[in-house]
Design a protein that fits this description.
21% strand; single chain; alpha/beta; 328 residues; 11 strands; globular
Length: 328
Amino acid sequence: MPCLLQLRGPAFSLLLLLWMPSSLAAVSAEALGFDSIGTMSADEMAALFGIPFLCASAPDADGAWRGMSSSVGMHCAASSAPGLTLVRETPDVETSSDGYASRFRGAAGAYFLSVQQRGLEALLARDAPLRETTVLDVGGGHGQLAAPLAAHGCHVTVVGSTPECRVRIVGAGSGQRIQFVAGDLLDLPFSDRSFDIVVSVRLISHIKDWPRLVAEFCRVARRAVVIDYPSLASINVLSLLSFRVKLAIEKNTRHYRSFWPSELSREFRRHAFRPTASFRQFLFPMAAHRLSGGNVLRSLEEAGRRAKLTSIAGNPVLIRFDRSESAV
C-alpha cells in the first residue's frame, strides 16, 4: 500500500502520495531489508524515519477509510482527531506468535530464558515475598514472565495489543493468577497506580514512541517498573555492526533501537521514577550462542559473570526503576 495522507470532510479529500528518489530508496530498502524500492508503505516510512505516517486503504461501504494491517509492528487505527487514520504500534503481536517462540527452543533458548528469569528475580528480591503482589506485564503475550511470576504468588495481568496476543497466555497455568486484557500499549486501559509493579521485556526497543510507553509504565505502576533494553554502553555495539550476520543466523530477528542508559533514566525521572538496580545478561551476542549450540559459550558466560565482566559490558540490560516523588 502506498503511503497516503488523507483528510476527509464534506468539502474535500486530500491524498498525498509520497515518493523517494530512487537512489535514496535503494539505500533505505537495503538498510531496512526491504525487497523492493519505489512506492513505500506507511510501515516502511515509519520504520525509516521514526515517525508515525498516516495511511489509508480503500473506503468501505459507509465511505470511511480503514487502516490496513502491518508487517513491522504497526497498523492503522482510528485517531481521536476527526478524519485522520494514524499508525498504532503493535510489535507485541509478533512476539506473541509461535514463530517468535521458536527462537527460544533448544538449549540456547532455554539458557536465554533462564538468565532472564534469574535477572528478574534478582531485581524483584526487595519485594519478597511476592505473594499477592499485583503485576502488569506489558506486551507479555510471549508468555516468558507471566507463569514464573504467578508461580511466586503474584496476580499477573498481561496486556496485549490484540486478542490474538493471548494465545500463549491461555495455557500458562497457575489457575486464576493470570489474566489477559487487550488494549493499546501506548494508552493502557488501567487507572493510575493500578499495579504494584509493571514489567515489560522485548518491547521498548521496538516502539517508535518509546517516551510515551515509559509514561504509561510510570502512570500505572504504584511502586516499580522493570524493563529490558539493548544498551549502547555494552558489547551490543558489535552486534549492531554485524546485524546482517545476526539476521542470517537467527532468520526471524527484527530491527530494533538501542539506548544509552542515561536517556532511559532521564525519561523515567521525568515521571518521578529513578533507577535502583540493573542486571546485565550476556557477554556474547545471542546469535553466537545459537550458532555454537553447545556448552562452551555458556561456560564462558558464567565465568565472565563471576569475574564481574558481564556487569560492565553485558547486554541486554534488565533495569528496575522505583517511584520517588523527589526524582527530577
